[in-house]
Amino acid sequence: MEYIKFAESVFERTKYSPLKTDIINLAENMAFLNEIGLSKLNKRLVESGRKVWDTIVEHNFACDLARYHAKKTLIDYEPDEDFTGSAIKCPPVLSV
After folding, report:
1. In the chain, what are the domain boundaries?
2. Per residue in 75-85, pLDDT tens?
C-alpha cells in the first residue's frame, strides 16, 4: 500500500512509537480520504509540522464523518465557497 510510507513519515515527526496497526489505520484512512476527494486533508497531514496531532484529529474526524454519511453527502475540506457559491471569508475546517 503506497500510503504506508506517508503514514510512517507522519509518525516519524512525533515522539510516539506507533504500533503497526496505527500505521495501517492511518494509511487506510489516507487512501479512503483520497478516494472520496479529500486529498487536500492528506496533503495537510503530510506537510504538517509540530501540530501534527491536531491534524490527525481532523483527519480521523473527517474519516468518521464520511463513513457515517456513507459517501452520500459532499464533504469539502476548507472550501473556497459555500454551497450557494458565495465566497467564504473565514472557511470552516469541514463543510457538509
Report:
1. 3-71
2. 777 766 665 66
